Amino acid sequence: PYEVLIVGGGPAGASAAVYAARKGIRTGIVAERFGGQVADTMSIENFISVKETDGPKMVANLEQHVLQYDVDLMNSQKARKLHPASVDTDGTPTNLIEVELESGARLKSRSVILATGARWREMNVPGEQEYRGRGVAYCPHCDGPLFKGKRVAVIGGGNSGIEAAIDLAGLVEHVTVLEFADTLRADEVLVRKAKSLKNVTIIKEAMTTEVTGDGKRVNGLNYIDRATQEAQHIELAGIFVQIGLVPNTEWLKGDIELSERGEIVVDTKGHTSLPGVFAAGDVTTVPYKQIIIAMGAGSGAALGAFDHLIRTPVP
Ligand code: FAD
Q: Which keywords has UniProt assigned to this entry (predicted)?
């Protein structure tokens, strides 16, 4: 059995693996796709101390760093069920935690770190995939500066959409917010702030139907005005899709405490509601989903797991 078994091979999982392995304890990492969201990222300019890199380079570096240590890396393996340990009346575990894979295999461990990340909800309209990373963006903190002085749209009028619009308004020439409903779901204070900005326009009852481009990059989008049923076109250089970040926790429902949004509830040491089970990164309730934050949380969860192991008898 493992002492620490990590599920997820993004920045959080990789960082947890390095920290756990450096304690000299038996460490395993199961990942559906090693690298996680980083593998889909074009340019990374906010990973402090590395001025600029790209996703594939960072994934290769993560893998090299993890494999520098004695870590069992099980790539292309998906977890489908967590079987928590039973505990006796004083909280001592009476058996090991098990992670069941899609292949049917069951991995046993004294502690588990969940780092299965999240995925951006997509619009599912023509052009979105084609121009992903070529004008279609999901992270204003990451890609906002690439659109300096240009016209962009933000899709979604919830808190993340309106926050993105306010953030981008300071960088770009103009921001158009498109909201499907006839009201904005964002907090009133954010809506007021966005409305006070001269270079932000908010359009409600707008159903985005297509991302348009010149074959190389985005040049606009089409939407239907739901009030009049008229088709409209806006010329733009970029589109920020802000209609939700979905945590990869479908496989954990019912076994562990999740927030309303489906995120794993963690405390500052990465503890979850289950003894011996820790979580880190975008899959958790941690605010702000970024590489550097996921890595910090992954190392914290590994140290939390180590703390737990030295205090808990081997079942
Ligand atoms: P993830 O990176 O999502 O990794 C999750 C891991 O879990 C993956 O290995 C996945 O395959 C695995 N997994 C999921 N489910 C299972 C399962 N059931 N069984 C086994 N494995 C599973 N952040 C920045 O700081 N700077 C940027 O420039 C930046 N740009 C971005 C650009 C794009 C296009 C995207 C999508 C995100 C960007 N981000 C950026 C955000 C950043 O990538 C994430 O915050 C970060 O990757 C989160 O790390 P994580 O380890 O928590 O999760």
A: Disulfide bond, FAD, Flavoprotein, NAD, Oxidoreductase, Redox-active center
Q: Where are the beta strands (DSSP E) in 79-179?
A: 79-83, 97-101, 106-114, 118-120, 136-137, 151-155, 174-178
143 annotated active-site: yes
Q: Which two tokens stand for residue 66?
A: 């993890």
Residue of 7, 18, 19, 38 with the most ligand 1 atoms within 8 Å of its CB, for mutation: 38
- Tokens matching residue 290: 């970024």
Taking the mean position of all CA atoms in its chain, how far away is CA 283?
6
Active site residue 182: no
How many residues appear in the chain? 315
Model pTM? Answer: 0.91
Distance from the CA of 83 to the center of ligand 1, in angstroms? Answer: 24
Q: Which residues is 73 bridged to in the sheet?
A: 29
What whole-number distance in Å separates Cα of residue 25 and Cα of residue 19? Answer: 10
Largest CA distance in the chain: 68
Please say whether the dihedral angle defined by the alpha carbons of residues 155, 159, 162 and 165, taken in this order, is positive or negative: negative
Q: With contact defined as beta carbons under 8 Å apart, do 176 and 236 qualify? A: yes
Beta carbons of 69 and 17 less than 8 angstroms apart = yes
71-124 per-position pLDDT tens digit: 999 999 999 999 999 988 888 899 999 999 999 999 999 999 999 999 999 999
CA distance 9 to 36: 6
